[in-house]
Design brief:
Blueprint: H1 3-18, E1 38-42, H2 56-70, E2 78-81, E3 84-87, H3 88-103, H4 109-115, E4 116-122, E5 130-137, E6 139-143, E7 152-155, E8 162-165, E9 178-184, E10 187-190, H5 194-199, E11 209-213, H6 216-225, E12 227-231, E13 237-245, H7 253-260, H8 270-279, H9 281-289, E14 295-300, E15 317-319, E16 330-340, E17 346-360, E18 370-377, H10 379-385, E19 389-399
Parallel strand pairs: 5-18, 6-12, 15-17
Antiparallel strand pairs: 1-4, 2-3, 4-19, 5-19, 6-11, 7-11, 8-9, 9-10, 12-13, 13-14, 15-18, 16-17, 16-19
Helix pairs in contact: 2-3, 8-9
């Protein structure tokens, strides 16, 4: 991009940061102050059952992924911790000690209570419970060439998409915040919506088409999941991962279908949304375009890759909102998981108790009370992730003596 073309964007930044922007906005008279989440300290007597229902090998892999990422982050960098912050050094040392306990076979309640301060996430609201959902890595049919069977493009990151990292200008004021847009003559404007990209073909000439998919509905769900495996006609497979997004707000199609009375709330699941879209092709595009958020992809050698740039682990990695939850951190998740009959129907919900690592984010995962559990790759993982929308609790573990007063 030339300096001349970039000049309007520079003027935009100057105006944004310098033109009458107070350090603390005045509150509207009578407006209720938004309650921040609290990470409340839990005494040893009130710890939950810490029995883990997954393999220790998968836990070790997830822990090592976070430790590898922490090793590349400045020790004094801070991350959100409810209404306060915590440094990378504290998170790294806490996780390293946890790994020592795991490898020495001392991951018991007594050792954990003696060595860690435990903090329960208490979202704002009367119930103070979290909503736990699941996501997965789909396997789709695709081709490197377009034809009558494979006609739905999967786009790479467009050249005209601007990412304005506000945190680099003022880390305290804009922690974790950024703007996404494009230049339109001498103005920075929001990037194209889903309907403008898929319906209006606005980026057909300006964005690389990585490949073409067979099914538009599966393409839509790939956008929601953020990564996938694409099976080519010759049997080879390629892996694609998240490269960026258009910055538009995420809208839940499931919520729209409930509001329409098309799917009862208690029957809502990923599978129910897919079935409705396929059974009502006349409504398909309109409903999908309700979700303005649009994801772009890249080829990856290994995956799926989370927001830390590391491969995430099925059953162990979770996605959360980095405005409230510390990136890469260790936590214990308590919720429910489905049990199926021989026909694949959910017959009951059983206890889910598991050590997890906070290694991803998601367009739909906003606020302190949302956690999305990565369930793995393929149909079995989809079956578990699809119906998950269960209440839950999350407990963060920080090595004793390291956490300053919040």
């Amino acid at each position: 991009m030339s300096i001349r073309k970039f000049r309007p964007f520079l003027w935009f930044l100057c105006l944004f940061f310098l033109a009458g922007c107070p350090s603390k906005p005045a509150e509207h008279p009578g407006k209720k102050k938004v309650e921040r989440p609290v990470f409340e300290h839990v005494t040893p007597a009130n710890l939950p059952d810490l029995t883990d229902d997954e393999s220790p090998d998968s836990l070790r892999s997830a822990v090592l992924a976070s430790l590898g990422w922490y090793g590349r982050v400045p020790p004094d960098k801070t991350f959100a911790f409810g209404s306060g912050t915590v440094s990378c050094a504290v998170l790294r040392e806490s996780l390293a000690h946890f790994l020592d306990l795991l490898d020495s076979g001392r991951l018991d309640r007594q050792s954990l209570a003696a060595d860690f301060d435990v903090f329960r996430v208490r979202p704002p609201g009367a119930e103070a419970r979290m909503l736990v959902t699941g996501y997965y890595e789909p396997v789709l049919e695709g081709s490197l060439t377009e034809d009558a069977e494979f006609k739905y493009p999967l786009y790479g990151l467009p050249d005209d998409l601007l990412i304005i990292d506000l945190e680099r200008f003022d880390p305290e004021r804009f922690q974790g915040q950024r703007l996404i847009g494009r230049l339109e003559k001498n103005r920075v404007v929001p990037y194209y919506t889903r309907s403008e990209i898929d319906g209006g073909k606005e980026i057909d000439r300006g964005a690389q088409k990585l490949l073409w998919l067979k099914d538009l509905v599966e393409c839509f769900f790939l956008h929601i999941q953020g990564s996938g495996v694409v099976r080519l006609p010759d049997g080879r497979t390629l892996r694609v991962g998240y490269a960026g997004a258009n910055g538009r707000p995420y809208t839940s199609i499931g919520k729209k279908l409930i509001e329409m009375g098309a799917v009862p709330r208690e029957q809502m699941s990923l599978q129910a949304i897919r079935d409705y879209l396929r059974a009502h092709p006349q409504d398909r595009d309109r409903l999908m375009w309700e979700n303005e958020s649009y994801e772009f992809f890249r080829f990856v050698d290994k995956g799926p890759v989370g927001s830390l740039g590391r491969v995430i682990t099925g059953g162990r990695s979770v996605a959360s909102d980095p405005k409230f939850h510390p990136r890469g951190a260790l936590a214990f998740l308590v919720s429910e998981k489905p049990r199926f009959d021989a026909s694949g129907n959910v017959v009951e919900w059983t206890r889910l108790g598991r050590w997890v690592l906070n290694q991803d984010t998601g367009g739909a995962i906003k606020g302190p009370g949302r956690i999305d559990l990565f369930c793995g790759t393929g149909e079995a993982a989809e079956a578990v992730a699809g119906p998950m929308k269960q209440p839950g609790e999350m407990y963060y573990f920080i090595r004793k003596g390291l956490m300053p007063a919040q």
